[in-house]
């Protein structure tokens, strides 16, 4: 009987990646034993042998030779007259090994076996891919851009596995071309329609953490600990670091000589500003450091409400809040405290009015919105242009104009 060469029929099985040969051979045997059970009712007396070098498949049937009228189980026994046709010197009681011609199963059965085998191998690949990347969640990998769509990007790893990077996981200023290599972190692995999907990210905090590990040997060696990272991808990041060795300056080690270590990370993150601060259990000091680059004059804490009132000079308010409120937002995430910024009036002005005095004319939520950007008096609001107020708050332009008219009218009345 000519053997079935599985390499010719299933070339991809020979090259199946991440599947060890014994497992692959076991799957092949199981598939054909299933075929035997369908045809003969049992596979107990059949041996399926697969050559893992050539891919050749052979099936042998084992039966005991019995007298012609003593056959009780055709799968386990063979009449003496049939046995001597196979080999003339067989005797009653001996075992006959007979090769089974797979062609006898029929073309339809063989085709079904191929489809089952393909499905089993596909499942093995999926499971291995799932396990491989589930163990690498949080690790940096490099992939090649294969396809770019509106909402996501498809990359291939060095083994040809497909990886997905959604638009939401890309830095807003990221721009990639097909064939370009991209570094990112494995964010999660999930099953969709029985298919493993590997999600990559360049915006997750762990991406910055891993980049720091690569650039700063002291972090990898455990001499410096990254306590917390908060990010506004592409805009600003704050990293709190700590060293248990007094001889090591954690901030200086992370920044490097003349910024040599941090510059590479900044370029990778599309010029994202990275503030490295020394972690401390002193909340007041941590708040002061987290609001870098602003200089703080005074801080009043309410530990029960987890809130802090921060007082600064007028020229420091915008620095503390940052562009689009990013700096203060990240400081709040880093410390866990709600932060309100106030101007520290060192110089007495001739005349000013607290915004609370306008409660009858200005809605409370508008006053709160102004206080968030450090404007708690009428003059502090009027010192800013309409465009600046619109940009730094959630107020509409018409609302800002109406607000300015109310405040200016009050000063005219006072005059």
TrEMBL record:
Q: Using the record's annotation, list all stretches that form the K Homology domain.
A: 233-295, 304-412
One GO BP annotation of this record: transcription antitermination
Q: State a single Pfam family of this protein.
A: NusA_N
**What molecular function does GO assign, one term?**
DNA-binding transcription factor activity
Q: Name one GO cellular component term.
A: cytosol
InterPro entries listed in its UniProt record: KH_dom (IPR004087), KH_dom-like_a/b (IPR015946), KH_NusA_2nd (IPR058582), KH_sf_prok-type (IPR009019), NA-bd_OB-fold (IPR012340), NusA_N_sf (IPR036555), TF_NusA (IPR010213), TF_NusA_bacterial (IPR030842)
Organism superkingdom: Bacteria
Instruction: Show the SUPFAM superfamilies listed in the entry.
Output: Nucleic acid-binding proteins, Prokaryotic type KH domain (KH-domain type II), Transcription factor NusA, N-terminal domain
**Subcellular locations according to the entry:** Cytoplasm
Q: Which UniProt keywords apply?
A: Cytoplasm, RNA-binding, Transcription, Transcription antitermination, Transcription regulation, Transcription termination
Q: Where is the signal peptide?
A: none
Role according to the record? Participates in both transcription termination and antitermination.
Similarity section: Belongs to the NusA family.
Per UniProt, subunit arrangement is:
Monomer. Binds directly to the core enzyme of the DNA-dependent RNA polymerase and to nascent RNA.
Q: What is this protein called?
A: Transcription termination/antitermination protein NusA
Q: Which organism is it from?
A: Flavipsychrobacter stenotrophus
